[in-house]
Design goal:
By secondary structure, the chain is α/β, with parallel strands linked by helices. It has helices spanning about 5-20, 30-40, 70-75, 100-115, 140-145, 155-170, 200-220, 235-240, 260-285, 300-315, 340-350; strands at about 50-55, 60, 60-65, 80-85, 120, 180-185, 225-230, 250-260, 285-295, 315-320, 355. The strands form two sheets. Strands 1-4-5-6-7-8-9-10 form an eight-stranded parallel barrel, surrounded by four helices. A two-stranded antiparallel ribbon has the order 2-3. Strand 7, helix 8 (about 235-240) and strand 8 form a beta-alpha-beta unit. The termini are far apart. The structure holds beta-D-mannopyranose. Beta-D-mannopyranose (BMA) binds near residues 85, 97, 98, 124 and 323.
Length: about 375
C-alpha cells in the first residue's frame, strides 16, 4: 500500500472514531450564530464581557419586576452576558428547577438579544434513571442507560427533544432564532452530577455529547454554540481534555471555579486559565470563565483586586458570576445597591476593558 492510501485510511479511521455518527459533513449554523462565534474569538482584543446568571428575573428582595436587574441597579447597565438554566424542561414542566416559568426565560433571552447582549444556557436536568435531581449520584449506570442500546435511551432522546424545542422557540418578532451558547454536561471533572467523573467512562461521556449534538441537529437546531466546561480539577491540558468530545462539537473552552479561600482561589484560577489559554490557542477556540464568584461577596474590593487582575492576565471572552437567589439566604454572587462590594463593582464597571451590554454597540451578531 502506498503512503498516500495509508494516510487516507488512517484519516478516515480517526474521523470515524472522533466524530459523531452523522457529523462528517460541515456544521449547520445560522449566520447570526457564526457571527457570535467569530466575535467571541476576537473579544479579548476589545475587553472581557461581564456575565450574571438569571440576571433580569429576580434578585435580592425582588422577583419579576419589569426591566430590573441587581447589576443594572448598581452600575446602570445590564451584564453583556446572561445565563439561564433549563433544568426540568425535560419533564415538560412549565417552570424550571429554580421555579422560573420557561416563558419568562424565553422572553428574557429575546430581550437580551434585542439589546445586543449574549445568552448562555446550562441544563441541570433530572436523573433519568432514578427520577432524582442532577445531583443524584446514587447510581453509576445512568449515562450508560441513556446511550443507544440502553434502557433509558428512548426516554432520554425525548428529553433532548424537549430542550431542542425550547432552543427552536427562541425567536424574535422578526423570526430570527437567538444564538445561544449551550453548556450541558458541565463540571464533569467532579462527581456531584450523574454525568460526573466517577459516574461514567471517557467514552460514555463523549457519546453523551455526541448524542446530544446529533439529536439537536436532527431537530433543526441551528442557533447553538457548544461550551465544554469542567471544574477546576484538571491539573494540565491532558487532564482537561481527557473527556473532550472533539473540535467538531465544541466551540468554546471554559471552566467553573468559585472562591472559598482567596489564595486557593487564585491558585485554581491561574492554573485553570493557563490551561484554557493553551488549549484555546491549540484548537483556535475562544475561552471563558463560564461560572465563578464569591458567595455573598464579603470582600469589599473583590471586583478590582481579585477578579479584575485574573481576567486582565488571560484572553478570556467573558467571565460570569452565578445567581442572586431570592429564595436562599446569602446565595448571591453579584452586588445589589448597598451591598458591601457595590462601590467597588462600580469601579470594576468603569474600567475600559470590562464590557457590559451598552459597550457591545449591537455588533455581536454581525461580522
Ligand atoms: C446551583 C445553585 C442551586 C440552583 C442551581 C441551578 O449552583 O444555585 O440553588 O438550583 O445552581 O441554577
Amino acid at each position: 500500500m502506498n503512503k498516500k492510501i495509508l494516510l487516507i485510511g488512517i484519516t478516515l479511521l480517526s474521523l470515524s472514531i472522533t466524530s459523531c455518527q452523522q457529523e462528517v459533513e460541515k456544521k449547520t449554523r445560522s449566520s447570526e450564530t457564526e457571527a457570535l462565534l467569530a466575535n467571541l474569538k476576537e473579544m479579548p482584543t476589545i475587553g472581557v464581557m461581564f456575565g450574571h446568571h438569571d440576571d433580569p428575573l429576580y434578585g435580592i428582595g425582588w422577583e419579576g419586576d419589569e426591566d430590573r436587574s441587581d447589576v443594572k441597579s448598581v452600575c446602570g447597565d445590564y451584564p453583556a452576558v446572561m445565563s439561564y438554566d433549563i433544568g426540568h424542561i425535560e419533564l415538560g414542566a412549565n417552570q424550571s428547577l429554580d421555579k422560573i416559568p420557561f416563558d419568562k426565560i424565553r422572553k428574557a433571552i429575546i430581550d437580551q438579544y434585542n439589546r445586543g447582549g449574549m445568552n448562555t444556557i446550562s441544563w441541570h436536568l433530572d436523573n433519568p434513571k432514578t427520577g432524582g435531581s442532577s445531583w443524584d449520584v446514587s447510581d453509576t449506570t445512568v449515562v450508560a442507560s441513556v446511550l443507544p442500546g440502553g434502557d433509558n435511551h428512548e426516554l432520554f432522546v425525548g428529553w433532548i427533544d424537549k430542550a431542542a424545542d425550547f432552543m427552536n422557540s427562541l425567536q424574535t418578532a422578526n423570526g430570527v432564532k437567538v444564538p445561544i451558547l449551550f453548556r450541558p454536561w458541565h463540571e464533569h471533572t467532579g462527581s456531584w452530577f450523574w454525568w460526573g467523573e466517577k459516574l461514567c467512562s471517557p467514552e460514555q461521556y463523549k457519546a453523551l455529547w455526541c448524542m446530544t449534538y446529533d439529536r439537536m441537529k436532527e431537530r433543526g437546531v441551528d442557533n447553538l454554540l457548544y461550551a465544554y466546561s469542567p471544574g477546576i480539577e484538571p491539573q494540565d491540558s491532558t487532564q482537561y481534555l481527557a473527556k473532550y468530545p472533539g473540535d467538531d462539537i465544541i466551540d468554546l473552552f471554559g471552566f467553573d471555579g468559585y472562591q472559598f479561600d482567596r489564595d486557593q482561589y487564585l491558585e485554581w484560577m491561574n492554573n485553570s486559565l493557563t490551561i484554557l489559554e493553551q488549549v484555546g490557542k491549540a484548537h483556535s477556540k475562544p475561552i471563558a470563565i463560564t461560572e465563578t464568584g464569591y458567595e455573598a461577596i464579603p470582600d469589599s474590593t473583590w471586583w478590582t483586586e481579585t477578579l479584575l487582575p485574573l481576567i486582565d492576565k488571560y484572553p478570556v471572552s467573558y467571565a460570569l458570576v452565578w445567581r442572586n437567589a431570592r429564595e436562599r439566604d446569602n446565595h448571591y454572587y453579584a452586588p445589589y445597591p448597598g451591598q458591601t462590594s457595590a462601590d467597588n463593582f462600580i469601579e470594576f464597571y468603569n474600567q475600559p476593558q470590562t464590557l457590559f451590554v451598552g459597550d457591545l454597540n449591537r455588533k455581536l451578531y454581525k461580522h
